Structures are given as structure tokens and as C-alpha cells.
Amino acid sequence: MTPRKTKPRHNQASDYESDANYLTDNSVPPPARTNAELNLSVLKRHNPAVASILSIAPYAVVYVFSPTSQQWEKSGIEGTLFVNQLRPSDTGVERYSVMLLNRRGLENFEAELLKGSDVEITEEYVILRANDGQQIYGLWIFSEPEPSSTANTRVINAQIIQDCAIRAEASMKSVMQNSQQENIRPDANADDTEEDGAGGVPMGRQLSLRELFGQQREQDSGWSVKNHSPQLAKHQFAPSADTEFFRSTKRPSQQNVQQANPKGGNSQGADLLGELFRKAGQDHLRGA
Question: In terms of pTM, does the model score above 0.85?
Fold first, then answer.
């Protein structure tokens, strides 16, 4: 029997070796991120408006106040608590919120801090009023006694929550006051322009020729001879040097009047016209 020939074997890399070479040559390590960056990225998935994290409590429990039983009841939400600063509103109002990521289910807790009166700090709970006081929540924040690192966790987070609520309320009032002042200013300017239009032209603005002649026409339209010179309604001519001259030539002088009236008396009682006719007749006879 002829011996069977065997095929020569070549040195080939296994699948594990090829994978190892691929990972060692082409893999790029992920960028290193801090815990704060990781927490912020997780919170933004639940609320994209989260801008920064102000405080963290490792463990907290959310209670709900029952109006019927007048007692605190567990809501089933407990986990890490975050006090966040949100992006400002469109009008520039500062915004803050409290978020608790639930470890026991898919439902998380979040409440926006609007007013300082909505936050109350007690020995056991941080009480939050939401929806205009219709819902009342109690946040129980875990803290251990001294010398644990969480000894002051409850006090610190409670104070930060209350301060954020006060800042949000103050920011809201400031924005509202500014908006009211801006709404009042145009009305005041409108009143000024109306007064200027009635009495003249606003200061600092030059008059155009059209406006200047328009005002002059309005003034001329109310002018009349009787309004400005009531005496001229009785006399057609105002006294002047020329009129006085003609009057003196036609009217007899005071001396002639006294000669014509030798007895004297006042000029108002004498018949001037008769005296003139007599004097004219005498002159005519002398001339004849």
C-alpha cells in the first residue's frame, strides 16, 4: 500500500488571537468622566432642562400626606435625591427643582420649587407643597450620626431646597416688576406726544416747512379784522397824519368857531353847521 500523503500545515491565527489583535490595535478607550458629569447626563435623560446639580442626598424617601387619614403614607419612591438648577424660562426667571430617582420602580419624583412658602422644614421631613397646595409631599432624607460623612446631609439639603425656592420667587417678582414698568413707559410717552401735538412740537425735533406753514395757516384761519381791531368796525380808517391834515383843512379851526360864537359856551351845544352857513353868506356878500 502506498502511504497516504498528508497536507502540510500552515501556521494560522485562531479566532481568539485575531480578536485580541483587533482589540489591542484599533480600540480607543472611552473618555474619562467624573461622577458629577455622569449624574448630570442621567438626569438630562429624564428632564432635558436640568442645567446643573446643586446638592445630592444618597438616600431619601418620598411620603404623601393623606387628607382623609391625616397621616403620612409612603409613595413607593425612594432613592438618590438631587437638587437641580434648571434652565431659565423664556422671560429670564430662575428655576429650580428636586428630583428623586426611584430604585424600587420606574416612576421617579420631581417637583419644581416656585415659592419660599411652599417649603417647610421639620425635624423629620422637608415638606413640599405642589399644585397650589393641593398635593403635599414629605421628603425624608437619610443621615447618620457623627462622625459619619452623611451626618449633615439632611440639614444641608433641606437648607438648599428652601434657599432655591426663595430665589425662584424673588426672580419671578423681579421679572414681573420689570415687565410692568416696560408696559407703562410706552403709555407715558404716548401722553407726552399728545400734549406736544396739542401745544407744540416735542423738544429736540426740528420743524419741517410743511409743519411750519401748516401751523401758520391754522393761526391765520382764526384771524379777523373784528377780532383783532374792534374799533375798526365803526371807522374805516385809522387816524394818521394825512387824515388829520385833511380834517384840519375842511373843518374850521377852534378860533373861527369861537368868533362865530362870541358868547362862548361849549362846542357840543353850538350849531356849527349854522355858523358855517352864516359865515359863507357873509363872505359872499363882501365879495359882491
Answer: no
d(CA 151, CA 142): 9
Q: Mind listing the pLDDT tens digit for each residue in 47-83?
A: 999 999 999 999 999 999 999 999 999 999 999 999 9
Residues, the chain: 288
The per-residue pLDDT for 168 is 96
- Cβ neighbours of residue 85 closer than 8 Å, sequence gap 6 or more: 50, 51, 52, 53, 54, 94, 95, 96, 164
Residues 6+ apart with CB under 8 A from 154: 57, 141, 142, 143
**Do strands 50-66 and 135-141 pair parallel, antiparallel, or not at all (unpaired)?**
antiparallel
Cβ-Cβ contacts under 8 Å for 87 (sequence gap 6 or more): 49, 51, 95
The series of mean pLDDT values per 10 residues for the chain, 288 residues long, is: 59 51 60 89 96 96 94 95 96 96 95 95 94 91 89 94 96 92 64 51 56 57 50 49 52 49 47 66 61
> For residue 78, which of 58, 48, 54 has the smallest C-alpha distance?
58
Q: Are 129 and 118 a contacting pair, CB within 8 Å?
A: yes
Give the C-alpha separation, 158 to 152, whole Å: 10
Residue carrying C-alpha cell 426672580: 171
